[in-house]
Fold this sequence. Notes:
Layout: H1 3-36, E1 40-47, E2 51-57, H2 62-71, E3 77-81, E4 90-95, E5 101-111, E6 115-117, E7 124-129, E8 134-140, H3 147-155, E9 161-165, E10 174-179, E11 186-195
Parallel strand pairs: 1-6
Antiparallel strand pairs: 1-5, 2-4, 3-4, 3-5, 7-11, 8-10, 9-10, 9-11
Amino acid sequence: MSPGAGFRGNTKAGRARMRLPVSLWGVLVLIALVAVAPARAQTGYDRRGGDYTRFQIRNGDPAVCAGRCERDARCRAWSFSYPRTAFALATCWLKNKVPPRVADKCCVSGVRGAAVIAPRKGPVEFSIDRFGGDYRNFDTAPEAAGAACQTACEADNRCRAWTYVRPGYIGASARCYLKSKITRPRHKPCCISGVVR
Length: 197
């Protein structure tokens, strides 16, 4: 074998060795990007199946469910359901697998490592109470986004803001509060609010 042939052979082998780390670096960079991208729990979704335990949450906050999953080594995902009546409490299901998300306005769900993220788009403020300024309140049908409460406020010239309280947080039914002034927003899982004018 001539020195040139041996050199070419070593060069090909060297290139092959060089290619492996480069492709390995690409995989590592992709994994790092995925790891850096925040995983998010989402309001308005359920993850059905894989339940190994469930418990009630007296304060009705989905962050309690997410936190419990973080502390349990078996937990891979979780689903939280808002109370549907005054006689029921919010419920958390911990799961030993990650079922696919299913749109369902009753719930908040996520995977381990995800914080609770409520939608913030548009004029509707999820998990926000605007305490005070009430001039009228009434029972309303339970719903996922407080649309009837928002509509009532938009139809009343006196109304500047509104808060819808989910059933089970104050009484047996859902309740709508119309407000003559805009008050400061406070984070509370019981409520959905909005500013109209």
